[in-house]
Write a structure and sequence with these properties.
globular, 347 residues, two-stranded parallel ribbon, alpha/beta, Rossmann fold, 5-stranded parallel sheet
Length: 347
């Protein structure tokens, strides 16, 4: 949702947004191993509602040539630094030419932090107990080089505001003639498996209005176990709202799809993917009511990616990721030092 927020801000600066997405090879060279494959990433970015077009295989260093090729007036990046493998600012050329704009980085989330949460598999990040020391110690290792702490790669807490939800929400009410479809789940680490499922659900009706019910953290933990969810309810809300197929989100939906819920939202269809449905606390089927009404449908997304599998990918590459983040941090700190020196020389 940090990426989505950047794309939302960029889209607001102009009329048409083209997003350049790098290949796996380019990312591996400059940053370390990507979590998702390029095909997965192309599709994910395309599914974000502020994106008009993607440019697959975009070069890591944005040049004027690239901007001209796609007929772009300017490019936008967050206010953190991106550096090439040899420590140069990747936006130097476009900045000099005056074709660079900047948007604010989303506080409280980074790929680095999420990877840290996955590697840790502790419950500290969404519990009320004081963060357990293990997690704190690890976040310290994870986003830190040997000395100091970079403000870009460091870990800070995400704070939800009503404003942020409004910026992400579609604000569209269902219209007469819309088919109101309800789907529910954790939607944790919103990924391409979720996108494929929602796209399939979207294709079930001529005018679909999809409402996604998100379960509270404790509920997700009850049926998923371990330290799921990796993202808390606020983070999951924004991630799902950013998807172009979703019209509305119920924050903290009940686990059982009740008659009240179906009547309240005037739901005509309830869909679930091919993942296992864990019984409710009392052993009942959470989809009993929609099944009784004959409005329940299983939807095969054709994609077997799950949050579990992503976590496994991360753990498999654990050492590479930790090395990657420490290198990234060291480079960012070097730039900060250089910037500080420049400032001091000016005075």
């Amino acid at each position: 949702y940090g990426h989505s927020n950047q794309l939302r801000q960029a889209r607001a600066m102009g009329d048409y947004l083209i997003v350049g997405v790098h290949t796996d090879e380019e990312i591996a060279k400059h940053k370390g191993p990507p979590v998702f494959t390029q095909e997965e990433r192309y599709k994910m970015v395309q599914a974000i509602k502020w994106v008009d077009e993607i440019a697959p295989g975009a070069p890591y260093v944005t040049t004027l040539e690239t901007l001209d090729k796609y007929n772009c007036d300017f490019c936008v990046h967050g206010d953190d630094i991106t550096l090439t493998i040899d420590g140069k600012d990747t936006y130097e050329e476009v900045k000099t030419a005056g074709r660079y704009r900047e948007c604010k980085r989303t506080q409280g989330v980074s790929t680095t932090d999420l990877v840290g949460r996955m590697l840790l598999m502790t419950k500290a990040h969404h519990s009320n107990i004081d963060e357990d020391l293990d997690y704190r110690k690890h976040t310290d290792n994870f986003g830190k080089g040997p000395k100091g702490h970079s403000p870009w790669t460091g870990v800070s807490q995400f704070l939800q505001t009503s404003q942020k939800i409004i910026q992400f929400a579609s604000g569209k009410e269902p219209q007469p003639g819309d088919t109101i479809i309800y789907v529910a789940g954790a939607f944790d680490l919103f990924h391409i498996g979720h996108v494929d499922f929602l796209e399939k659900v979207h294709q079930l009706a001529e005018r679909p209005y999809i409402i996604a019910g998100l379960h509270f953290d404790q509920e997700v933990n009850r049926y998923k176990g371990k330290n799921y969810p990796i993202m808390n309810i606020h983070e999951r809300t924004l991630s799902v709202l950013a998807c172009r197929y979703v019209s509305e989100v119920v924050i903290g939906a009940p686990y059982a799809v009740t008659a009240d819920l179906l009547d309240h939202f005037r739901v005509t269809l309830v869909c679930h993917g091919m993942t296992e449905v864990v019984p409710d606390k009392d052993g009942s089927d959470p989809y009993e009511e929609p099944k009784r009404r004959g409005i329940f449908q299983l939807v095969d997304s054709g994609n077997n990616l799950t949050t579990d599998l992503i976590v496994q990918r991360i753990i498999k590459n654990r050492l590479e990721f930790e090395a990657r983040n420490q290198k990234k941090e060291a480079k960012e700190l070097a730039v900060l030092e250089a910037m500080k020196r420049l400032e001091e020389e000016k005075h």
